[in-house]
Amino acid sequence: MDEPVEYPIDGELDLHQFSPRDTREVVMEYIAECRRQGITSLRIVHGKGIGVQRRIVHSLLDEHESVEGYRHEAGSGGGWGATVVDLISAE
């Protein structure tokens, strides 16, 4: 049985550390915890590759009621390999 891993909640989620089959659960839990902590801007690093994780992440963001919007990160900060997400504050 795998032991839970503590992951810092600082507004940046790097999915390289997780199996693609865990992407949905990890992203959903991370968004929920960011909202609990008042973090409304986050960066999800999904990598460039062939785009499988990016498509999974974007489909989740399209459906998530707490997501105000998202976009690919501009400039040298990751481009197609990262998505910046704006969340509605939890108030």
Can you give a write-up of this model?
- This protein has a single domain (12-87), classed as Ribosomal Protein S8, Chain: A, domain 1 (2-Layer Sandwich), CATH 3.30.1370.110.
- Helix 1 packs across helix 2 (52-63).
- Strand 1, helix 1 (23-36) and strand 2 form a beta-alpha-beta unit.
- It has helices spanning 23-36, 52-63, and strands at 12-14, 41-45, 67-72, 82-87.
- Strands 1-2-4-3 form a four-stranded mixed sheet, covered by helices on one side.
- The chain is globular and about 35 Å long.
- The mean pLDDT is 88.
- It has 91 residues and is an alpha+beta fold.
- It is 29% helix and 22% strand.
- The protein has two helices and four strands.
- The longest helix is centred in the N-terminal third of the chain and has 14 residues, at 23-36.
